[in-house]
Amino acid sequence: MTDEISFEDTLAALEAKVEELSRGDVPLDRALAAFEEGLALYRRCHDLLAKAEQRVTKLVAATDGLSEEPLAVD
Amino acid sequence: LTLKDAAAQLSCVIFREEAEALGFDLEDGLDVLASGDVDVFTRRGEVQLVVRALTPAGVGAFWVAFRRTRKKLEGEGLFAATRKRSLPKFPRRVGLVTSESGAVLHDVVTILRRRFPLADVVVSSALVQGPEAPLSLRRALVDVAPRVDVVILARGGGSLEDLWAFNDESLARAIAACPVPVVSAIGHETDVTIADFVADVRAPTPSAAAELVAPDRDELTDRLSRLREGLDRGFRDVLRDGAARLATIAERLTLKGLRRDVDANMDRLASAGRSLAVSIRTTIAREGERLEAVARRLDVLSPLATLRRGYAVLSRGDGALLAWACETTPGESVVVRLQDGRLRARIERTEVA
Known about the structure:
The structure holds 2 protein chains of 2 kinds.
Chain A: H1 7-22, H2 28-51, E1 56-62, E2 65-70
Antiparallel strand pairs in A: 1-2
Helix pairs in contact in A: 1-2
Chain B: E1 2-4, E2 9-14, H1 16-20, E3 32-41, E4 46-56, H2 58-75, E5 93-98, H3 103-115, E6 120-125, H4 133-144, E7 150-155, H5 169-177, E8 182-186, H6 194-198, E9 201-202, H7 206-213, H8 217-253, H9 255-301, H10 303-308, E10 313-316, E11 321-322, E12 333-338, E13 341-346
């Protein structure tokens, strides 16, 4: 599967940052860090969604088991 | 028991134990294939078939087999609601088991592309009708399952016979044993197959399955925007709270602020002084009352009270009290105390009783 951190995990991390910031008892330096991290997570989620290109493959029998070949679907 | 077709009929018998071993109930109008021995009653000119084997045929046979499989798997708990798994919210890879030709593949792939292009689609093609379809479908499912987060098992609409492969018992067992959730989408909404019963989610159509499996990109974008606003708002609030606290501290550090602190302390001092004075006054008043009470009691016990009742106290010149007549000598001076004063007197004679 994919090595990169998933959309789901990134979204969950972003939600955690928003939650942390809205608690109200955050020290200023911690708040600044949370804000910056949240912003990076937001950009990442946004980019993932905006730039995602669907990959379609077809499962085919190969000599050593199964392999996936690109499949064009209009 | 009579066997009929469009043009002829034949009377038959079936033994009870064989009828019970059929695995289905005999009903009027059922299409069957019967085989057995023919008895000929020469005297009456009659022929009778003694049925040894009976199998359902045609549409009737489909339903008999369907009910039998459904009952069996239901009895094993394969359709239980507690077995149903929920679908992943954000699938990374979606498996699609269907025919490589046909509209289903195109529909599912385009809907997934529009809604959630982050998810890859792995197509595992299979025969979806005909006698080899059950095995082909089962293989396609087993092959793709370890590579994906969720599987869509789909076929477009067709006749009862076309959809028949999806009522296969071993396919049903493969769905139940699948390591990831399976969404079934077979035929039209009104078609129900065994695969639908055993799947984790049944979608009315293949397109609906694609929508169930993937989140919607537009909704996600909205959600992201709201989170972004939440970040801004949260940080702004933290800044605003910090600024307010800073202002409070700065205010206290000014001369005016210090002055106010001093004033506040002076006030406290004055007020403490006032309560001290009040408490001293009450203490004095209370102690005064106690003193008076004690004095009153003292008065009752005092010899002065006895004097007031007409008694006298005698003492010698040196002040020692005289209680005995024998202690006096004639000519001695004594002091007599009465309630309003003293008498200085001299003893004339002593008479001891």
